[in-house]
Amino acid sequence: MRDGSPVPQSHEERQTVVDQYQNEESFVLDAHLRAAACHGSIEKVELLLSTEGIDPNSPDEHGSTALSWAAYQGHEEIVQLLLNVDQINVNVGNVYGGTPLYVYSERGYEKLVQTLLGRGADVNAQGGNHGGALQAASAMGHEKIVQMLLEHNANINAQNGPHGSALHAASAMGHDKVVHMLLEYDADVNARSGPNDSALQAASAGGHYKIVQLLLEHNADANVQGAIRAASAGGHSKIVKMLLEHNANAKVQDGTQAASARGHSHVVQMLLEHNADVQVQGELLGIALCAASVRGYDKIVQMLLAHYAVVHAQDGKFDIAHIEASGMGHDKIVQMLLDRKTRLNIETIFYLYSTKTPPLSRSLSSYIQKNMVAERDAAYNKTLLHWAAYRGDQTATKRCLDLGAQIDDTDGYGMTALHLAAENRHLKIVKILVMANAHRTILDSHGRTALDCARIASSDGSHDCILEELRPPAQSNTRLSSRRARWILSSKLHK
Predict the structure, then answer these.
(1) Residue 330's CB: how many other CB atoms inside 10 A?
(2) In residue terms, where are the ANK repeats (predicted)?
(3) Is residue 399 situated within a structural domain?
(4) Is residue 490 pLDDT above 70, yes or no?
(5) pLDDT attached to residue 236
């Protein structure tokens, strides 16, 4: 008989099957037993256990036995049947989970846990997703099983699995009754473990107010790194308040940054009232002001600026260009920061000129310094004079010229500031550049002069005044360059 065949019903049929099994090699019999246990075939398991030479503890290539497979698959009757075998090893785990004790502690099967403990199951065996039986029962909130395990000397402070300790697991998952029981059994309330570092931080992150209260009543350290940050990030204002009332120091943690990044203005206000340091760097998005700016929380930006948050671009603590990193375009916040006389670096000014339209870009002239006018942006090879002309920013154009900008420098397309002003029909900029002796006959990469660009832009005759400004004082009879000749010919062909 192989797995999948009908289960024998009569005594004669059963004896025939037993006789067939007797002729099998022992390792084949053991494989049949594991398969039957895994698939829940109790009749086959009974037959195989009555066969001479069967080893119920024989593991497969992954180390799993019939008992561990039956436990993992949840076949309780087969587990009970196997546990009645005198020589059964109850401490062998399954490749996909822990020992049978772990499996049933996690699933909350109290009777099976009690039976396994009575058979000498190792209460501190490691394995499974939670790391051990006590951590699993604690994480799942199975109070009676937690108590059984503790009564059988489970190591209450063992550090296994993603949560670390059992107290940490119960705190993270919000099981206050389990937390209370573990504390009564003297669990280390300040043990550091797992991704949230401590039980207090885990409970704070989950917003489990009652558990936070329990932990603090049992002398949890309110200043444990990350507790305020975790509560602030989740917007759990009641927990933040409780931590502050237990002397948590708002200055040394990045709770303000965490709350700012997620828009929890009420938490930000509370922390600022407790003298939080708004310059503390967070794991993401930098300081609080940067975090709120990137996410577009203008109310929080106003709060932080009112509490003298330092805004610096050049020292790396903050860069207004970062505001636009998410592509959201929070113009109101950009303007707020500009109004605070932020020190801008050249990359930030280039960024704002290239992504913003007037009037915002016209606010930048006062930030232009002498050492900036020769710099070029990476994307278009433009100088600040190019951008000022392109945007029609008269004040910035004059400032660049006053600071020594080269008026006839060309960008990545061979265009001068005069080309850009003409093409975008900025008459006043054209006048400023012409009066500053900008050359009108320079050709761009398409063979066009600034006058040509103006003609294209003013094809409807609406900006003839720009054409007048750009006409040379006297028409020249000099020979046309080949590049300009090609452009003129191309223009005529397309008319």
Answers:
(1) 20
(2) 62-84, 96-128, 129-161, 162-194, 195-227, 380-412, 413-445
(3) yes
(4) no
(5) 95
